[in-house]
Write the structure tokens for this entry.
Amino acid sequence: MSDPIRLYYWPAPNFGDALSHLVVEHVSGRAVVNARPKQAELFALGSLMHVISKHWTDRSVGDGPLLWGTGVLNPFWRKDFLENVRVRLLRGPISAAFLRLKMNEFGDPGLLAPEALPKAPAREDKITILPHHSQMEDPRFVDMVERDPALHLVDVRLDPVTVCHEIASSAHVFSASLHGLIVADAYGVGNTWMDPDAQGRLKYHDYAASIGRDMIAPVEIADVPAVARAVKDTPLPYTDGIARCRDSLLRHFPHELRADMTEAAQ
């Protein structure tokens, strides 16, 4: 039980996925290693249900992995894998509806970023632009920030501490990255959903429904500079929803993975 928690998260350079490692370490009080899907004992931050359903159609030795805060990426209908995993919490009600699981508590682990990371820097008068990782080579973003010095482009492929601190120190965030929006919410920074182009939109609506956020459609990329000039610094109207999800995340984290529980079992 002194071994690190075997956590699966997408290993590509993307701060939202790598953030799973830091959040789980913080909540569990244990070390974490990135494991392959079939060897993982925990799936947390990210839209990983398609990975889980592919690798856990049959049970191997043990009780199967634990699911805490993960969600659905795109619609799919298979549910046979659910008998081989242990669901403690899902990201949002849309994921639960697709899986036909009766749940009334939800939460994305990214909402715990402020507690898991070093103290955030002071707020600055900058508007941060966070493309989806698949858009980082899109010249529209470079052109946008070159034309408007008030806009600050952040590469989401950087490490999670750097990206989260960039978000936390912003006056407002425009993000096509789901976890750009989630982390901004976690730090109380006003934020606007930006068009993620070809990326599916289900995961954004799933998260928004979990906290009671009105997030119908994203702003077009070409419209960001004009919208940015009109944004106002006002409190987030869904802070109660954020607090509710944070509480659910902490209460439903698998107790058997916590350091205090594993030490007691020794």
